[in-house]
Amino acid sequence: GFAGLLDLGYVAFFAIGAYTMGVLTSPEMTWHNLHLGFWGALPIAVLMATLWGVILGIPVLGMRGDYLAIVTLGFGEIIRLLALSDALKPFIGGSNGITGVPKPSLGPIALNTPPTLYYLILAACLLAVFVSTRVKDSRLGRAWMALREDEDVAEAMGIDLVRTKLLAFATGAAFAGLGGAIFASKLTSIYPHSMQLLISINVLCVVIVGGIGSIPGVVVGAVFLIGLPEILREFAEYRMLMYGAALVIMMLVRPEGLVPEARRALELHETEAGAD
Q1: What is the average per-residue pLDDT within 49-65?
Q2: Residue 206 dihedral angles phi and psi, to the nearest 5°
Q3: Can you tell me the distance from the alpha carbon of 11 to that of 177, in angstroms, rounded to the nearest whole number?
Q4: Under 8 Å CB-to-CB from 58, ≥6 apart: which residues?
């Protein structure tokens, strides 16, 4: 939410990270002789996702809002269909996916149980929070927030829009690739049907519900979006209906999010006061 780029292609970079991890570590992939471990494949998976983030960012530099969302959504669908295609089946398994992805290990300790994997996922989340916090207060973070408010004014103030946007796409793609790589190793398998648009929608909802540009808000938004359906499970088939109604009510009552960034909340209320 720092740069305000409506990117629905998150699932594409998530899939790229997951498939890179699977291809480099699974013994089923006999067309190469690498067969790296988790830690050897992890930086390559993140790097591949980052590279594709830049590749996607180059042709959409001039797009904003809904147009950017549609293009990135299409990119996500292209990646999913390519993963399903017979053309790439010898390399990434096609509709059969990739199985046999090894669990990560830390020296003699095998991270093959839910408690140990929890600490790995927690470490990745803390890394993402640390990087995001450091970037937010940096010159790049301030450039992203200026870009979010008004691209024309940001460019007039001397901000390089091309570099700033590409760094935003690359950073988001790197986090997605990191998540995808851990996802593949956690499940020990990857299937194209797991890479649905719903992943991108969930990420977007987490950011909006928590508060755009707010790091604590993203954490609270994730807890809310994941925890609420479980709380409503006792309502059986009406669970998702009540979940959707709760989201609608929340966005009407608190459009700035549950834990909004102070500057973003002030701007939103100023806009509403001006409209009144």
Answers
A1: 83
A2: -60, -45
A3: 9
A4: 166
**φ, ψ for residue 190, nearest 5 deg:** -135, 130
- CB atoms inside a 10 Å sphere around CB 160: 12
Residues 145-180 have pLDDT tens digits of: 888 777 778 888 888 888 888 888 888 899 999 999
Q: Taking all residues of the chain, what is their mean pLDDT, rounded to a whole number?
A: 82
Number of helices (H) and strands (E), helices first, in the chain? 12, 4
Q: How far apart are CA 33 and CA 52, in angstroms?
A: 24
Q: From CA 79, how far away is CA 177, in angstroms rounded?
A: 14
Residue-wise pLDDT tens digits, 186-245: 988 888 888 888 788 888 888 888 877 778 888 888 888 777 777 777 776 777 777 778
Provide the pairing of β-strand 109-110 with 189-190.
unpaired
Q: What phi, psi does 98 have (nearest 5°)?
A: -125, 130
Report yes or no: 264 and 213 within 8 Å, Cβ to Cβ.
yes
C-alpha distances in Å from residue 143, one per residue of 67, 69, 111, 219, 222: 22, 21, 39, 23, 26
